[in-house]
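Translate structure to sequence.
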């Protein structure tokens, strides 16, 4: 088994959750989402991000608004829908439970 592949799969598993968290703070441009994910070492490329944003939009978890830009063409800013907020609340609960479970297993392993 390849360690790098396992790490990529772990990051992919939480990618939608992280994207929804970022968008939940307020309207955000796709490149800002990408930058934050890269800063957090959640490796993602535009070719991964845009299809995910489209899928989340089609699931009615987020929406977007076009806004004029001072440095070029209009930009698409993403916002969370009410349905997206409720979905994120469920993911929050799952993440808290999962993180506690993994932390518990790690603690027992380190003894």
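Result:
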């Amino acid at each position: 088994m390849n360690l790098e592949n396992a790490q990529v799969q772990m990051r992919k598993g939480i990618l939608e959750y992280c994207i929804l968290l970022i968008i939940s703070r307020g309207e955000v441009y796709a490149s800002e989402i990408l930058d934050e994910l890269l800063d957090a070492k959640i490796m993602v490329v535009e070719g991964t991000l845009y299809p995910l944003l489209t899928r989340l939009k089609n699931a009615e978890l987020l929406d977007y608004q076009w806004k004029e830009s001072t440095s070029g063409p209009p930009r698409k800013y993403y916002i969370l829908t009410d349905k997206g907020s409720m979905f994120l609340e469920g993911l929050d609960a799952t993440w808290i439970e999962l993180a506690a479970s993994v932390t518990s297993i790690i603690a027992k392993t380190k003894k």
